[in-house]
Amino acid sequence: MSDYAFYIWSAYGAAALAIGALIAHHLLDYRAQRRALQRLEGDAARHGS
User: Fold this and answer.
1) What is the spatial distance between Cα 24 and Cα 30, in angstroms, rounded to a whole number?
2) Low-confidence ranges of the chain (pLDDT < 70)
3) CA distances from 20 to 8, 24, 43, 45 (A)
4) Residue 2: left (phi > 0), alpha (psi -120 to 50), or beta?
5) What is the DSSP letter of 1?
6) Is 47 helix (H, G, I), strand (E, B) or coil?
7) Opening angle at CA 37, ends 33 and 40, nearest 5
């Protein structure tokens, strides 16, 4: 490997962690928004709207 291998692999690792964190945040937010929508739809159905 070259002299810059540590830098390159560190950059790949940091990018992978950042992308993984973004994916995890997106999935958690999606689930929360789906639950909120189901709760709102349930409230609307109970109130006759």
Assistant:
1) 10
2) 1, 49
3) 18, 6, 35, 38
4) beta
5) -
6) coil
7) 140
Structure tokens at 37: 């929508």
Euclidean distance between the first and final Cα of the chain, in Å? 66
In the structure encoding, which two tokens stand for residue 15, read together?
A: 């990018």
Instruction: Say how far apart CA 21 and CA 13 lie, in whole Å.
Output: 12
Residue-level pLDDT at 21 = 98
The 10s digit of each residue's pLDDT in 13-26 is 999 999 999 999 99
Helices and strands in the chain, H and E counts: 1, 0
